[in-house]
Amino acid sequence: DAGVIQSPRHEVTEMGQEVTLRCKPISGHNSLFWYRQTMMRGLELLIYFNNNVPIDDSGMPEDRFSAKMPNASFSTLKIQPSEPRDSAVYFCASSFQGIIYEQYFGPGTRLTVT
Amino acid sequence: TQLLEQSPQFLSIQEGENLTVYCNSSSVFSSLQWYRQEPGEGPVLLVTVVTGGEVKKLKRLTFQFGDARKDSSLHITAAQPGDTGLYLCIVSGGGADGLTFGKGTHLIIQP
């Protein structure tokens, strides 16, 4: 079975450019999470969706970040304009909504903003 | 706001030794999960617990959960280089909006 798929795996871009990260959750899962991980701050939850609807985006650092989930099998995280401090590994995870959120993580996208 | 502390932050031991890492919450949680993250990969779920006092075993890994449902430990017997990674605990207070994350324990097992 295919796990969570993320693309691209690596992204290098210049400050000010738009960056779009993509995620395909596991089929049948109805919750999707976007995370950012750095050595300094650890794993941070940015936003999560239930049934394609954004439930909590309080972790989104600022208006430069936006996330969409147009259907159950696809989500995007966009940064516009990007800044060097956005450099991190971004993970997408999916789970079946319930009392226990057992999450299945994708391999991550390593973003470097120069 | 629920706080979650993992200790130690870093641990480097020799192959064959035993070790224990800890996850402590400031509040009672509904469920707790341990994940292991290898370099360059996403976290992988190891175990989920919802019952206070529960003990679960996964080969050489033993997970214990406090009776008060505020803490947990992970014990590894006869550690192997393949156990190297970042061990994360994530607790839920009852919904995805109550998810809290520890910063993890970086474990290195030297051959």
Give a written overview of the molecule.
The complex is a heterodimer of chains A (114) and B (111). In chain A, strands 2, 4, 5, 6, 9, 10 and 11 form a 7-stranded mixed beta sheet that branches. Chain A has a 4-stranded antiparallel beta sheet with strand order 1-3-8-7, with no helix packed on it. In chain A, a hairpin with a 2-residue loop joins strand 7 (65-71) and strand 8 (74-79). Chain A contains no helices and 11 strands. Chain A has strands at residues 5-7, 10-13, 19-24, 31-38, 42-50, 53-56, 65-71, 74-79, 88-95, 104-105, 109-113. Chain B has 111 residues and is mainly β. Chain B starts with a strand and ends with a strand. The mean pLDDT of chain B is 90. The chains are: A mainly beta (114), B mainly beta (111).
Quick gist of this model?
The complex is a heterodimer of chains A (114) and B (111). Chain A is mainly β. Chain A has no helices and eleven strands.
- Quaternary structure annotation: heterodimer
Helix-residue proportion of chain B? under 10%
Number of helical segments of chain B? Answer: 0
Q: Mean pLDDT score of chain B, rounded?
A: 90
Radius of gyration of chain A: 13 Å
User: How much is the average pLDDT of chain A?
Assistant: 93
Distance between the termini of chain B: 41 Å
Main beta sheet of chain B: 6 strands, mixed
Number of helices of chain A: 0
| Strand-residue proportion of chain B | over 45%
Termini separation of chain A comes to 36 Å
The tally of beta strands of chain B, per DSSP, is: 11
Helix content of chain A: under 10%
Shape of chain A: globular
Backbone shape of chain B: globular
Instruction: Summarize the helix and strand pattern of chain A as letters.
Output: EEEEEEEEEEE
- Give the low-pLDDT segments of chain A: none
